[in-house]
């Protein structure tokens, strides 16, 4: 990760965006590609979904996955700490 803010231009769905952040261009490109793939999948599964609802569903799915991963990380960390206390 970079310490200075960088500008990154991305095309997501049918719109162009400029993001500013410390993430690398490769990271931002990967995120953009993943978002576009998932938007295409949502549109294929629900062809009548509008762009706003697709974006909300995409965000909901992303936050849901983030929470699941955080819970798993917390569980692994707790198990690791318990094993460390046993030794």
UniProtKB/TrEMBL annotation:
Keyword Cell division carried by entry: yes
Top-level taxon of the source organism: Bacteria
InterPro entries, per database record: Bac_CellDiv_Activator (IPR053712), Cell_div_ZapA-like (IPR007838), Cell_div_ZapA-like_sf (IPR036192)
Gene Ontology biological process terms from the UniProt entry: cell division
A Pfam family per the record: ZapA
Gene3D superfamilies hit by this protein: 6.10.250.790
Keywords: Cell cycle, Cell division
The protein's name in its UniProt record: Cell division protein ZapA
Organism from which the protein derives: Apilactobacillus waqarii
Taxon lineage: Bacteria, Bacillati, Bacillota, Bacilli, Lactobacillales
